[in-house]
Structure formats: structure tokens, C-alpha cells
Amino acid sequence: MASVLEDPTLERCFKGHKDAVTCADFSPSHKQLATGSNDKNLMIWNLNPKARAFRFVGHKDIITAVHFSPSGDLVASASRDKTVRLWAPNIKGESTVFKAHTATVRSVSFSSDGQRLVTGSDDKSVKVWSVHRQKFIYSLNQHTNWVRCVRFSPDGRLVASCGDDRTVRLWDTSTHQCINTFSDYGGPATFVDFNASGTCIASSGADNTLKIWDIRTNKLIQHYQVHSAAINGFSFHPSGNYLISGSSDSTVKILDLLEGRLIYTLHGHKGPVLAVAFSRDGHLFASGGADSQVLMWKTNFDLLNYREVLSSHSKRVTPDPPPHLTDIYPRSPHRHHTQNGTVEINPAVTDIQSADPHVVEVGEAPFSMTGVSGRAGGVPGYRDRPGTSRASASTYTHAYEEQEEDEEEESPGLGVTYLLDERSGLPPAFRSTLEHIVQQLDILTQTVAVLEERLTLTEDKLKECLDNQAVILQTLHTDELHEERGAEGPAV
Q1: Which of 96, 197, 243, 366 is buried most deeply by CB count within 10 Å?
Q2: pLDDT for the residue 210
Q3: Beta-carbon contacts of residue 297 (< 8 Å; ≥ 6 apart)
Q4: Cβ contacts of residue 385 below 8 Å, gap of 6+?
Q5: What is the first-listed, main subcellular location in coarse terms (predicted)?
Q6: Taking CA 348 as the corner, what is the angle to CA 346 and CA 352, rounded to the nearest 5 degrees?
Q7: Could you confirm whether domain 2-351 is CATH 3.90.1150.10?
Q8: What pTM was computed for the model?
């Protein structure tokens, strides 16, 4: 559980793109932010204020999507040049190219194990790739128009896709079949994603709506219409309690999914907001827009209250019926409109005084995935490219070493543990103990759920046995009556 304590605040404004910012994603280590743009460049912003930013040059057209691998040692980018590139997000800037689509690639996403990529394209297809073998595996072909967005479920068993045919589709990755289609849209479906537990998907549309579906029951459970223009993207908070959305109405909206209402409207971009993304720990979120700016915000509204967490877990292990999704989300899919009680935030973006980072431009440098392991740092080293002198190579190497030194000098205050301790106001030892208790309560809750399920099965079996016994007794009683009548003989 979380409590709303403070409003989100603007932390930094990154300036380096020369055209609209179309996509954004934070690294799993919380140290980098990747953004793509209409200027054809991929930018890697190091969140340490002293560190450099990297501009990767290689795509021949607009970059439409970016996504960090789960280990953080690769960044995938999709482009209108019909390719997907995998980059090493460091000064060496090595990349490899995936080609199989015949039109603009709109979306790219890693599976949770980092072994596969899924892509969606204007050629109406969804494709799945092997990352380490650098090979196309299979296509999913039932969309009848451009595919705008694709995502793996957290367990990798499903793929969600949406597009200009006004549908959202769910695919089984083992059978390669479409197992469900949601088509309640008045225009193109622009974005889709799973929540952290994988039980729900959210999808947005050019009709200004955002919908959340329970994929276990295939029911619409929430329907928001809080923007006044098309929604271009959204992002779930890791807790699943909040969602941010960016729209062509130039605003970022923050929704409280537990209460089913809009809580914040953020004004900062001068033009459509094209991309939003939460960091993996939920402490930060970024937004990118047509004004070429990347704004990084501090969450603040999701400060953890351990007393509420422990209280909720205590309730979960009582003999009361286990909680269901309908106990958390609104029971009916009523529409949520803008409310007068929402907080409007208008940061003075132009007054941000943080110095712009020094940008290092990195050209194309091919690499082979054979040296990439599943851990960070497995990307092969720098390779001399044709036309690259030894002097320039040593310059890159020297810059990279300085970058590493900058990262080593990074203040402990940027660490995740420190941030959590600061936010919760608890000593590290006490916080660790509470986390351990919460984990044990989770295990206990799962155990109770399993026992309840087994008890229900046992009751069903027992009832079935009793019913069978009653039938048998009735049959025996009938047979005895027949035998008695036969022994008495025919009436005289």
C-alpha cells in the first residue's frame, strides 16, 4: 500500500535531441535513461550529474522505440528505417542490426529473461527474435493494419499487441496463436502493456481513452477518459498502484489505480507528450515530447508506509475470504473523468539550472553477440572501424575511462538503498527486518491460498463420495425390496 504524501517534482531537464523525443526507458540499474528521437539519434543520459551523455549515430530514419535489456547491458531501438538495433550503452557504442520487417518498426521489447525480442511494424506483423543467435524465430499475423505497440508478459508466456486496426490482441508464445482480441475502440489503439503481476493489460487509444482489462476474466475493469487528445504512451508504476500517461494535449497525467481516479496533471512540455516511463524502482519517471525536451521527475507520491503494508498482510492471512481483483479495482467499468480535486503542477522548465551534460557522439561500431553473456559487462570491447585512427580510438578509450571514474565517484546518495531509507525514514537494519517480515508474510499468504484450494478440492471429493454412497444405498434398498417380494410368491 502507498500513501499520497508529496507532489511529484521536476528534477532535471535534458537537452540534446534536435527534434521530437519519441520514446524513453530507464536502465535496470537506475543509472541511465535511454531516449530516441525524430533526429535519428539514440541518447543515453547518465543520471549522475557529473557524467557524460552519449549520442549514438546509426539509424537512417526516425527512432520509434527503445528498451533496455533486463541485465542493462543492451539497449534495443526500433526505427522507421525498417531495422532494430542492439547497442552497448557505453562510450564504445557497438551495435548489431536485425532486419526482417518490410516497413517501419514501431515497437520493440525484451522478454523478462532477456533471451527474446518482440517487434511490431507497419507491415502488420508481430515478430519474435532470438537475441543471442541474432535470428528471427516466428511471426504473428492477424492484424489488418499497422502494429503500434508490442509487449511480452512478465512470465514470457504471452505477447500483447495493438494497432491501427482498432484491436488489442493477446498471443500465446508456445502455440503462436491469438487467444483473445479486445476491439472496443473508436480509433487506432496506440499503446499496450502488462501490469507487474501480468494479470491485467492496459491499452490506450487515439480516441483519448485508457482502458484496463483483467485478462483472467477478459473483463474491462477500468475506463479512463481524462485527456483531451490522443494518448501516445503510458507506464505502470512497479507497485501496480499508479499509472502515468502522456498525451497530445501536452500534459502528463498520473492515475491512482487503487482509488480509480486522476490525482495529478503535469504541465511542462510545450507541445504533445510522446513518451513516458517509470524507472524500475518507481522513484523517478521521465517524459519526452515534441519540444525536443526530456524531463525527469521525482515521484514523491509513492512513499512506502510499512505500517500499512504490514496491516494489509495481516488481513490477508485471516480466515476471511482471500482478496480478489474486484475488491481492489472498481467493480464496474465506469468511466473516470477529470475531477476538480486533481492537482495541477506547472514547473518552470525554462528555469532549470542544472548544467547540460557534455555529449559524446558515438558512431557505428558493429559487434558480434557471441561474446554477450546474460550479465552486464558481457558486451565485446571496442573495435577499430574503417577510417578510425588509432589516435581517435585512444581518445574514445580515455573518455570511457574518465566516464568509469565519474561513476565510481558517484555519491552514495544516488543508491537505491539510500533512497528507500531516506523515503521511509527508517534505519537500514529495521527496514531490512521489515522487508524480511513482509517476504515471510507473502510466503505464508501463498501457503494459505494453496491450503484453501486443497481444502476446497477435498470438500468436493468428499461430497462426491457421499453422493455416490447415497446412490449405492438407494440401489441396495431397492434390490432388497424386490427380493422380498419375489420370496413371498404370487398372490393367491
Answers
A1: 243
A2: 94
A3: 8, 9, 10, 11, 266, 284, 285, 286, 287
A4: 363, 364, 365
A5: cytoplasm
A6: 140
A7: no
A8: 0.68
- Average pLDDT of the chain to the nearest whole number: 79
Region 233-261: what's the mean pLDDT?
94
Domain boundaries in the chain? 2-351, 426-483
pLDDT category of residue 425 using cuts at 50, 70 and 90: low
Other beta carbons less than 10 A from residue 355's beta carbon: 8
Q: How many residues does the chain have?
A: 492
Residue pair 45/32 in contact (Cβ under 8 Å)? The answer is yes
